[in-house]
């Protein structure tokens, strides 16, 4: 059988460098250690800085490196597991929910979210911003979109603004009978607001988990949870999705 076109393509320079860098991380650097600057690394390995950046970005995507504001590029520790809400937890804000509600706004949802909710694109919804912290480190930011029809008895008197308002919206949502959920995961890039919440740079790799919550025969809410891809790994099983997060710790 002849050689295929893909088999004849040489290995990209950045990919070879990624392999060499990965071996160097294992043998020369400790967890949390800051790497030399790009100029020094490029000179050491005899490559262009553009090639070096591609290799570093790949290693960041694989969870070997972390880019931190005001620190630089550091060696990432190995991942450990943190449980994420399964279908048994029901609505956001139910007992056992590890997320912290921070803010509530009324605004139109992104077109894709409005379509999932089955509402008009210009219909305002309640948008709850939540965060999740593990081991003292922010690991995820969440936006829960709830149409007015899912919380019909909510009034401004319940709580005017801030975390109290967010909790009031979620509390009202839980009055509806929970019928189940579905979830999808995709790789993305951190938007500016998510990057700030996760203490990462805009454009950093993230995992976006979209969850639809069903009640009253339709979609009652949609959650867009953004997890740090450099520290999280997803496993799927009978109980749903488990997130494995890397806490900040020193190598032994």
Q: Enumerate the strands of the largest sheet in spatial order, edge to edge or round the barrel.
A: 4-5-6-9-8-7
Largest sheet: 6 strands, antiparallel
From N to C, what is the helix and strand string? HHHEEEEHEEHEHEEEE
How many helices in DSSP terms?
6
Radius of gyration: 22 Å
Ends apart, CA distance between termini:
50 Å
Helix-residue proportion: 25-40%
Question: Structural class, judged by helices and strands?
Answer: alpha+beta
Uncertain stretches of 5 or more adjacent residues: 247-252
What's the β-strand tally?
Answer: 11
The outline comes out as elongated
| Percentage beta strand | 25-35%
Summarize model confidence as the mean pLDDT. Answer: 82
InterPro entries: Bact_HTH_transcr_reg, Chorismate_lyase_/UTRA_dom_sf, Tscrpt_reg_HTH_GntR, UTRA, WH-like_DNA-bd_sf, WH_DNA-bd_sf
Domain HTH gntR-type: 11-78
Organism: Streptomyces albidoflavus
Keywords: DNA-binding, Transcription, Transcription regulation
Give a brief rundown of this model.
This protein has 252 residues and is an alpha+beta fold.
Structure notes:
The chain has 252 residues and is α+β, with helices and mostly antiparallel strands. It is built from six helices and eleven strands. Strands 4-5-6-9-8-7 form a six-stranded antiparallel sheet. A hairpin with a 2-residue loop joins strand 5 (124-134) and strand 6. Helix 1 (13-28) packs across helix 3 (49-61) and helix 2 (38-45) packs across helix 3. The longest helix is centred in the N-terminal third of the chain and has 16 residues, at 13-28. The radius of gyration is 22 Å and the shape is elongated. The chain starts with 12 loop residues before the first helix and ends in a 7-residue tail after the last strand. The model is unreliable at 247-252 (pLDDT under 50).
């Amino acid at each position: 059988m002849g050689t295929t076109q893909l088999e004849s393509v040489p290995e990209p320079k950045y990919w070879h460098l990624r392999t060499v860098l990965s071996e160097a991380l294992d043998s020369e650097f400790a967890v949390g250690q800051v790497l030399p600057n790009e100029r020094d690394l490029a000179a050491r390995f005899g490559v262009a800085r553009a090639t070096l950046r591609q290799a570093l970005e790949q290693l960041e995507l694989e969870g070997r490196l972390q880019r931190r504001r005001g620190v630089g590029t550091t060696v990432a520790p190995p991942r450990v597991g943190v449980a994420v809400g399964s279908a048994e937890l029901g609505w956001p804000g139910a007992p056992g929910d590890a997320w912290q509600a921070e803010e509530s706004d009324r605004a139109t949802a992104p077109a894709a979210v409005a379509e999932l909710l089955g509402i008009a694109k210009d219909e305002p919804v309640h948008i709850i911003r939540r965060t999740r912290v593990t081991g003292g480190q922010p690991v995820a930011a969440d936006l829960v979109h709830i149409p007015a029809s899912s919380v019909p008895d909510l009034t401004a008197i319940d709580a005017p603004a801030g975390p109290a308002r967010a909790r009031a919206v979620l509390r009202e949502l839980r009055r509806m009978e929970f019928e189940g959920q579905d979830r999808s995961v995709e790789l993305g890039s951190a938007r500016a607001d998510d990057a700030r919440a996760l203490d990462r740079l805009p454009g950093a790799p993230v995992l976006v988990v979209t969850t639809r919550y069903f009640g009253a025969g339709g979609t009652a809410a949609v959650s867009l949870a953004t997890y740090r891809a450099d520290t999280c790994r997803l496993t799927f099983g009978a109980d749903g999705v488990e997130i494995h997060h890397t806490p900040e710790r020193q190598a032994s």
